[in-house]
Design goal:
Blueprint: H1 2-17, E1 20-21, E2 28-30, E3 35-37, E4 39-41, E5 46-53, E6 77-78, H2 92-102, H3 106-114, E7 125-131, H4 132-136, E8 143-149, H5 166-172, E9 181-185, H6 190-194, H7 204-219, E10 225-235, H8 237-246, E11 259-263, H9 273-288, H10 295-299, H11 303-315, H12 337-342, E12 351-357, H13 372-382, H14 388-398, H15 407-430, E13 436-440, H16 451-454, E14 463-464, E15 467-468, H17 471-487, E16 509-513, E17 518-522, H18 528-539, H19 548-551, H20 578-589
Parallel strand pairs: 3-6, 8-9, 8-10, 10-11, 11-12, 12-13, 13-16
Antiparallel strand pairs: 1-4, 2-3, 4-5, 5-7, 7-9, 14-15, 16-17
Helix pairs in contact: 1-20, 2-3, 5-17, 9-11, 13-15, 15-18
């Protein structure tokens, strides 16, 4: 499975990333509130400023509060040697899959996961990777910046999980190119960052990300970065986060980044804020033996108890669910991002590159789906409270059984379209077909299988789902990502483009990464099913009945938008297990 492939990739590449030593003149940056020194990767010729606090830590009275930038003056020196991650949690259904891949019991794997090193509520930190040339010339010139937002279903993951940038940095400095500054951030997870309710600010994780980007605007020039040339990049929940940042406040506030790279932005309908709030309070009451009914009550609990509550709520999530995640709140998230796109309420000035994989959910859809009833149950779990009329329309008209080789493939396609694939098409249309869209179609093409290619470090023994990474394709993907991040055009990387990457255009063109070659083709998401999914969200999917939308076959996408309509009460993200596997591997196999 992809989780093992990513763990193998990071295991093999982590050695390179940590071939570091202190130089005679230690690279130092004074941030005012703290002084930071770096370690130097002599092989890759870049400095690593690790574990820089980008906000006042959300502990004590600040637990469940919006983040703010650090203040004050201090001569305290931080060498970044103590790595931190936010509190982790994962559902049992996912841990069971991962335990099976490790050939250990669920209980053993859960114990390892629950005791990962470095977990802390004081986790709002980031890492800055700076090529030596950029740092040495930081006074005279400024280089582009890439900010990585990790995935993990909004309940797990960290700034160092599945994302060693050594290969990207090396490609960015080819042919005497300036390269770029790479930043990776933590943000609050689980109930710490995504608990919603009337007595706290929802979506704190999004606010964390926003403050991290504000920190980049304020301080990145000290490292040689150009605050006017910032690209945010992420996969799965990270890409979903970027989707929310692009549509933040309905586009009423200017984005603190110029470009966005979204790899498989994942959204699925799940428990709403009220449900997750109630589940949290019930579990807190059960564990403490006293009534816990408000966030104020939660805030008084000790760290170990709150950690246990978070783990239990997520662990008991229903199949394919995670309980916590971004939710429309009327302010930061006025509505579902897909709805805001349709209504034109987003930051139009951002340039976008977006991708999806050819079989996103086929690798995670339950293998026991063999009948029409199984598919029906799957859709009802995917879209809780769906009306029978809407359910029947999805099964009989949009995805009839006769169109698919098996019920499993049918269910996986429904999941892929509704949670990931169609969102990439929605972005292309919303940005007037000016986006750069790609399809990762190297078999089997499961969710996250482009990540070993994104962070390929030149090691040809790197495996992706048990198959060696195609070096030529990996470099091609990296070059497109680098070109886009550095210039806004994926065709203008330091290495040059072998195949011209087209904009989406009126013909819905994408570049496809296949085992044989790079090819341009029509987007497989340019189809009536995707038109229907977005319009269903605009109109309020839970409330759909037997109307024109649900009783007639949708027209082919017209590459235009309508506006108006209500919204779904919740949307979340699909977790990929690679982050978990990497974190577990780091805690059990890499001792520094």
């Amino acid at each position: 499975m992809v989780w093992i492939a990513v763990a193998t990739l990071v295991a093999s590449s982590k050695v390179l990333a940590h071939t570091v030593h202190q130089r005679d003149a230690v690279p130092t940056v004074d941030l005012g509130y703290e002084i930071h020194t770096a370690t130097t990767n002599s092989t890759g010729q870049y400095h690593i400023f690790g574990n820089i606090p980008y906000a006042v830590q959300p502990v004590g009275d600040l637990r469940f509060s919006k983040p703010v930038l650090p203040v004050g003056n201090s001569s305290n020196v931080n060498n970044g040697s103590v790595d931190v991650m936010c509190m982790q949690a994962s559902p049992a259904w996912l841990l069971a899959n991962l335990a099976e891949s490790y050939n250990i019991s669920l209980a053993q794997f859960t114990e390892i996961f629950d005791n990962l090193l470095g977990q802390t509520e004081a986790c709002l930190a980031l890492d800055v990777y700076v090529p030596e040339g950029i740092f040495n010339n930081r006074i005279a010139t400024k280089a582009p910046v890439v900010v990585w937002i990790h995935g993990g279903g909004f309940t797990s993951g960290s700034k160092v999980a599945d994302s060693n940038p050594a290969g990207l940095i090396a490609r960015s400095t080819l042919n005497n190119s300036e390269g770029f500054v790479y930043v990776a951030i933590n943000y609050r997870l689980g109930l710490y960052g995504w608990l919603g309710g009337d007595d706290l600010t929802p979506n704190l994780g999004l606010y964390d990300q926003a403050v991290a980007l504000e920190w980049v605007q304020k301080y990145i020039e000290l490292f040689g970065g150009d605050a006017a040339r910032v690209t945010v990049m992420g996969e799965s929940a990270g890409a979903a986060s970027i989707f929310h940042q692009v549509t933040a406040y309905g586009g009423a506030q200017q984005a603190s980044f110029r470009q966005a790279i979204m790899q498989s932005p994942a959204f699925t309908v799940a428990e709403n804020m009220t449900t997750s709030y109630e589940l949290t309070m019930v579990e807190a009451t059960r564990q403490t033996g006293r009534t816990v009914s408000t966030v104020a009550d939660l805030a008084k609990l000790d760290s170990d108890t709150l950690k246990s509550i978070n783990e239990a709520v997520v662990y008991n999530a229903t199949d394919s669910g995670f309980v916590y995640g971004p939710s429309p709140d009327g302010t930061y998230v006025p509505a579902l991002p897909q709805v805001l796109l349709a209504e034109g309420k987003f930051n139009h000035d951002v340039q976008v590159m977006v991708g999806h994989n050819s079989a996103e959910l086929l690798g995670t859809t339950h293998v026991n789906i063999t009948t029409q009833s199984d598919v029906s149950y799957y859709v009802q779990r995917l879209v809780p409270n769906i009306s029978s009329a809407t359910l029947n329309y999805i099964l009989d008209v949009l995805y009839p059984a006769t169109d698919y080789s098996s019920e499993l493939v049918r269910a996986a396609q429904i999941g892929t379209d509704s949670t990931i694939g169609c969102s990439t098409r929605d972005l292309g249309l919303a940005f007037n077909n000016s986006t750069y869209n790609y399809l990762f179609a190297i078999p089997p093409g499961y969710h996250a299988e482009d990540i070993p290619y994104t962070f390929f470090n030149g090691n040809t023994s790197t495996l992706d789902d048990g198959v060696a990474v195609n070096e030529a394709i990996a470099y091609a993907l990296q070059d497109y990502l680098i070109g886009f991040a550095m210039t806004g055009d994926p065709n203008k990387s330091p290495a040059g483009a072998t195949v011209q990457f087209p904009t989406y255009g009126s013909e819905a063109q994408v570049i496809a990464f296949t085992s044989a070659a790079l090819v341009t083709r029509t987007d497989d998401m340019d189809k009536p099913q995707c038109e229907w999914w977005q319009q269903a969200m605009v109109q309020g999917l839970f409330n759909l009945t037997t109307t024109a939308t649900t009783t007639s076959k949708p027209a082919m996408p017209s590459h235009s938008y309508s506006s108006s309509g209500s919204r779904l009460p919740w949307e979340g993200s699909l977790l990929v297990g690679c982050a978990i596997l990497w974190i577990v591997w780091f805690n059990t196999a890499w001792i520094v």
